[in-house]
């Protein structure tokens, strides 16, 4: 009995049939004379990418063989309106059978953006290269897992003659060696094995470590597949200049903040009181904006004040409360449609359970863990209803807003993946804070002129260091 073809082999077999049929219904002779040279430079768009500040190729993908339907409401216009603010290149899936793509999507995205458009398909024929350019693509994907060297050269040379760039995809040592020998300018490493669909996020690390002496300085390395959060970006960017991300973004209802979370991480500025500060927080790449309702805070807001703030930028807003009635917290959370409520007092498990039931999964619950600046251990109780912990400094009776720093070395390792680090963080010490391994940082007094009034220069300085961390 013959072995069944792998998923990739089946896709390539079906692609050959598709190409044959397409050439009959829409022959090259019908459109070749209309093809003009590409007008957006794929290679230039990635040239400035570095290990410190990587570039992003963001992908428009409706479905895939590994996940099936990913984005039921595939509003390409809305997707393009988000991607154009963050991407260096935008990738568009055009395979119909397995990814529910379409060559017409390329022009639809291109009309709304300034970035080069990568045609993502299983290229096996010169006809597809011509079709990609006719459809207004600026670059194509060539997969060494499905192409021999001769066919690769034919397709790559044709693409270059039409002004298009080439993303050369590899997934094995042999393919990576071939990419180098073939003189590929942009080499992608697919972390997903397209024969089995399994993901290995260390694949690019192993390949780059093994071949680092042979990789030309001007070659750009792209990590493809499996990127879901910023911690992965931080771990892999010493080995990659750019990241191609699709499925994790397409699966998110809040696409804009999904993109921001992956690129910038989960960082927060708390104690917002002015519209201009809200806008600055958003423009500097922070994901969360903190609105304080705790009664003893000099940055306390009324509901009306908060309502006037949240319309200024689409941040994920977090309301900060301290030992206040569950009904009050619920009211504020629902009226402001808060992303999370942050409990900064002595709220116990019973309080959290009651609040969780009232919020009904629509708003996350975060809890502050106040650590005395003299403490030698972090005392905490992990509650499964709490989505994030805020590790904040305590000085005497004052919890939070102290501007003081506790000993970060005592943070338990198991707490870091669901914690934001707060307390006295500023541009002077944020680099040290960012290497502690927490999910992100929570800034307040360290980016202020005085209580409740943020300092744009301080905020921008912190944001720049976050981006490079």
TrEMBL record:
Q: Specify the domain of life of the species encoding this protein.
A: Bacteria
- Keyword annotations: Amino-acid biosynthesis, Aromatic amino acid biosynthesis, Decarboxylase, Isomerase, Lyase, Multifunctional enzyme, Tryptophan biosynthesis
**What reaction does this catalyse?**
1-(2-carboxyphenylamino)-1-deoxy-D-ribulose 5-phosphate + H(+) = (1S,2R)-1-C-(indol-3-yl)glycerol 3-phosphate + CO2 + H2O; N-(5-phospho-beta-D-ribosyl)anthranilate = 1-(2-carboxyphenylamino)-1-deoxy-D-ribulose 5-phosphate
> PROSITE patterns of this UniProt entry?
IGPS
The molecular function terms in GO held by this entry are:
indole-3-glycerol-phosphate synthase activity; phosphoribosylanthranilate isomerase activity
Ranges where the N-(5'phosphoribosyl) anthranilate isomerase (PRAI) domain occurs: 267-462
Main role?
Bifunctional enzyme that catalyzes two sequential steps of tryptophan biosynthetic pathway. The first reaction is catalyzed by the isomerase, coded by the TrpF domain; the second reaction is catalyzed by the synthase, coded by the TrpC domain.
Into which family does the record put it? In the N-terminal section; belongs to the TrpC family.
| Name of the protein described by the UniProt record | Multifunctional fusion protein
Q: Which organism is it from?
A: Actinobacillus pleuropneumoniae serovar 6 str. Femo
């Amino acid at each position: 009995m013959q072995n069944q073809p792998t998923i990739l082999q089946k896709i390539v077999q079906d692609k050959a049939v598709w190409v044959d049929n397409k050439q009959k219904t829409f022959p090259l002779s019908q459109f070749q004379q209309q093809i003009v040279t590409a007008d957006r430079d794929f290679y230039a768009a990635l040239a400035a990418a570095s290990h410190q500040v990587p570039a992003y190729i963001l992908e428009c993908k409706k479905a895939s063989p590994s996940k099936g339907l990913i984005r039921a409401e595939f509003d390409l216009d809305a997707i393009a309106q988000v991607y154009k603010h963050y991407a260096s290149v935008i990738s568009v899936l055009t395979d119909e059978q397995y990814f529910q793509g379409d060559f017409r999507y390329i022009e639809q995205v291109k009309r709304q953006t300034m970035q080069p458009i990568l045609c993502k398909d299983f290229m096996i024929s010169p006809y597809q290269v011509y079709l990609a350019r006719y459809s207004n693509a600026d670059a194509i994907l060539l997969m060494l897992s499905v192409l021999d060297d001769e066919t690769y050269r034919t397709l790559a040379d044709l693409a270059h003659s039409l002004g298009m760039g080439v993303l050369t995809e590899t997934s094995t040592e042999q393919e990576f060696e071939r990419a180098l020998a073939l003189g590929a300018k942009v080499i992608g490493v697919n972390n997903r094995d397209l024969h089995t669909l399994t993901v290995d996020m260390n694949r690019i690390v192993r390949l780059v470590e093994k071949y680092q002496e042979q990789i030309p300085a001007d070659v750009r390395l792209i990590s493809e597949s499996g990127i879901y959060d910023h911690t992965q970006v931080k771990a892999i960017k010493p080995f990659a200049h750019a990241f191609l991300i699709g499925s994790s973004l397409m699966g998110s209802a809040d696409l804009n903040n999904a993109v921001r979370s992956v690129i910038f991480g989960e960082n927060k500025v708390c104690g917002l009181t002015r519209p201009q500060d809200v806008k600055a927080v958003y423009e500097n790449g922070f994901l969360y904006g903190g609105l304080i309702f705790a009664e003893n805070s000099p940055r306390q807001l009324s509901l009306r004040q908060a309502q006037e703030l949240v319309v200024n930028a689409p941040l994920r807003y977090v309301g900060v409360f301290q030992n206040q009635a569950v009904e009050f917290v619920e009211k504020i959370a629902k009226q402001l449609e808060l992303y999370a409520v942050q409990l900064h007092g002595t709220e116990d498990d019973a309080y959290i359970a009651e609040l969780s039931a009232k919020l009904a999964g629509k708003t996350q619950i975060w809890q502050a863990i106040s650590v005395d600046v003299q403490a030698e251990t972090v005392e905490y109780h992990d509650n499964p209803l709490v989505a994030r912990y805020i590790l904040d400094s305590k000085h005497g009776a004052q919890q939070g807003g102290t501007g003081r720093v506790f000993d970060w070395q005592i943070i338990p390792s198991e707490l870091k993946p669901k914690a934001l680090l707060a307390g006295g963080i500023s541009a002077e010490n944020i680099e040290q804070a960012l290497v502690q391994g927490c999910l992100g940082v929570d800034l307040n007094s360290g980016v202020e002129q005085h209580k409740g009034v943020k300092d744009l220069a301080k905020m921008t300085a912190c944001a720049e260091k976050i981006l490079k961390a």
